[in-house]
Specification:
Layout: H1 2-21, H2 26-40, H3 45-61
Length: 64
Amino acid sequence: MAVSISVLLLLVILAVVFLRNGGLKFWHATVCVLLGFFLAGTSMAPTIANGISTTAGVVSGLHP
């Protein structure tokens, strides 16, 4: 749960930055949000969530 909130917060911050800089138009962001909602309802959603969790685990385990 904490990983998904962190990823969500990061994506929201990036979207706001891109919208303010003009690199992301409002309609592009809307299409991406709708894609996310529809993708969450597919059979790929658990695989994507597991991939993100695994990647977060690997990144958090790195000690430079």
